[in-house]
Amino acid sequence: MHIHAHRQTTTVVLVHGAFADSSSWNGVIKKLKHEGFPVVAVANPLRGLSGDAAYVRDVLAGIDGPVVLVGHSYGGAVISDAARDSDKVKALVYVAAFLPERGESANELAVKFPGSSLGEALRPVPITLPDGSQDVDLSIDPSRYHHQFAADVPAHVADIMAVTQRPATAGALGEAASEPAWRTIPSWSVVATEDLNIPRELQIFMADRAQAQVREVAASHAVSVSHPETVARVIEEAAGAVG
């Protein structure tokens, strides 16, 4: 693996999902920076799938050179849309993430196989969006966060993650995906086998459908926090394979 040959050439763009923020990538960022990769961690708006993808697309437009685009959880749906028709994105890496087919939503996929206990852990808050429409912000009850989202992360870290989590709108999680970029861009999938948000069986189903290269990790949904070395290694492999 000729990682160092890719220094300052391939930029890694990281997109977090619902109930997290960009700091969930900190361990991964440290590893990637050590290997010389330029890294951008996007603040995913979590307001609506097409709008979130458009925002990531704008971020990509400001980056010179090739990109490996990485998404965690709902962020997988965002990168699948954002990279479509991109000549800049050379690889997609899904980290305990959704890889929706056209017409599928995160909510619809989440119940396709048994094993997700996310629904009962969520707290809804009615909100008014900037355009005046009504929606519901969803976050994980802080008392359930450690078990639900980050069971293999130290409790004191999970407690902070619970406080800093960013809610997603019900509209974003219910919005149907458009034509996925994984159909034309080489993909990798880090499958978290102990995931209570997106069950392993679902992650494998989506990865196989997308013909993604799979790396299974005995980890919670917060695999980027609990196993940053493994996640970074898969990203590096993706960069090396397409560089």
Automatic annotation (TrEMBL):
Q: Which residues form the AB hydrolase-1 domain?
A: 12-233
Q: In which domain of life is the source organism classified?
A: Bacteria
InterPro entries listed in its UniProt record:
AB_hydrolase_1, AB_hydrolase_fold, Sec-Metab_Biosynth_Hydrolase
Upper taxonomic classification of the species? Bacteria, Bacillati, Actinomycetota, Actinomycetes, Kitasatosporales
Statement: the UniProt record of this protein carries the keyword Transmembrane helix: no
Name-wise, this protein is Alpha/beta hydrolase
Q: Which UniProt keywords apply?
A: Hydrolase
GO MF terms, alphabetically ordered: hydrolase activity
Keyword Glycoprotein in the entry? The reply is: no
